[in-house]
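User:
Hi there, any thoughts?
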Amino acid sequence: MPSTALSTFALAVALVAGGGAVAAPLEQGAEPPEKRTAELLKQVQAAPGKVPTVVFEKIAKKQDAESFAALRDAIRAVEGTNRLTAAFGALRHYRGVARLEARALALLETACDDAQKSARYAAVYALQRFGEPALPVLGRLLARSRHPEVRTRALKSVLPVLREKGDARSLQLVLDNFQSNTSGRLETLTEAIPSFRGPRVVAALRSMLRDENRKPKLRVAVVEGLEEYDGKVDRLLVELLKAKSASVVTASIVALSVREYHGHTAELRNLARSKDPDLRLSALVGLAKMSGDSAVWDKRLAKDARDKSAAVRMRTASALGFLGTEGALETLHDLLEDEHEKVKLTALKQVLRLRRRASVPIVIERLKVEEKPVDVELYRALVLLTGLDHGKSGGRWSSWWTKEGVAFTVPELDVAMAADKARRRAAWEREERYTFFGLSVDGGNVCFVLDASGSMKQKNDIDVSRLDIAKRQLTGVLRRLPEGDAFDVIFFGSRVEPWREELVPMDAKYRAEVLEHVEKQGFLGGTALYDALAVAFELEQLEIIYVLSDGAPSGGTVNDVNKIRAEVAEWNADRHVVIHCIAVGGGHRLLEWLAEDSGGNYVRVK
């Protein structure tokens, strides 16, 4: 936030200022805390666009009135979105501190109305991280803020409170402000809808769902939330069969079928004559489920399953899964032999959805003959159909079925998934870790730089986040790092959090401290890789860096990958630090470059 801009926030900062603190007596030889805080503030003011973000953390962690005033002044002076976000975020350290917590929240609430969008973004994000004390502030912002980006972000934190209230006004706030990703996943919106009850709630739903200007994906998410809704919404869903969006119409057909409503035959017959093939097929399946006469519909869809168009066969496979009759299942089994890979996989998805015992030997036989990638999907389908794991060999599955198939009962999906997760997690926990993602860790003077951005929350299929996997790998290395080897650990997101800011020799004390630090590490927002590397290169005697990240740089002082590459090369020209890089979830060109330029290794992990 440029210091030249005189905004409403800048004026409000002056009003929040005030108060004082009586300095505690200093122990002999101790450095005056006032001087240290003042030095940190001067560091910000001297280089408002280049100061390391860790400086704001150092100021706020003092948790006294003087440091609050210094951080307030630093916020007024700082330049750049990343530093502004870090400065506002540091205010969370005043949570639970008498008088200062309220002043921190007031400062952030005022900043959410700042003239500059970057300040508003940074402030509302800081409120989200502040925790429970910030909920009343976020609630006021959701109800009153004139800035849409503030309201959509506030909703993410306030949604659980609104669901608990369950009234029409709370629902209206959700429907008016929900934005995919910013406020949460679309599944979050779907899950929230059944929480709201009453006639005024249905009126609010009707107003939103019939608004053709609203994004179809949001309307579909709400319609899906009505599938199990305990209220009078059937006629509303019938009205939506006339919507302009095909996806909304299809979702409404499915919802009416799930709700076992049969009062829309005329509407479905009309849609069955639609020029849109997806609408036509959805309507036909809806009619089939209502009629109870499956033979005619089984025959009709079996004919479509032999169509020359792979797209038609794929749509038919989805419809067969929705129909769910014995005849439909037989046709799905036939489609597992289709010449088109996507048709096979669509049919397999529906076979897994229907979960019938008759499918198990069919899938086993296909596993024996299929090649990648279909064989991998067939193996996973068997695991989730049976709740067992006999490996990727069709022969072993066949032997098991010959011995035990007669008495076998297909478990519920959640039971099979839980068993699979337990097996995989147990195997993961048994793994020995002598390397860092396969890279040997030899010698000291090493720094581990790990991405703790929001995207590192992504979990694998045994419910372990990317960050937890990285922390476990790092913990394994740190437990085995020889005493005397110098090291440091840096986590980064929208800000950079070094453990020690210097290389320290490993000993029993440091080992215990760093393991506790790694265990407690949480998520940090963006991906300020440049800033993290800058902090790492400030370490004296550094020889090796291990960098782990799962995304492109964002929210940092420099985000252009070419500029970052050039800067790191300049820093490293005379130091010859080896940089080993681990790319999580896919290839990342910058990490590959950094390893290549420094003589390090580059690996990709899932």
Observations:
- Residues 8-15+34-142 form one domain.
- The two ends are 38 Å apart (CA to CA).
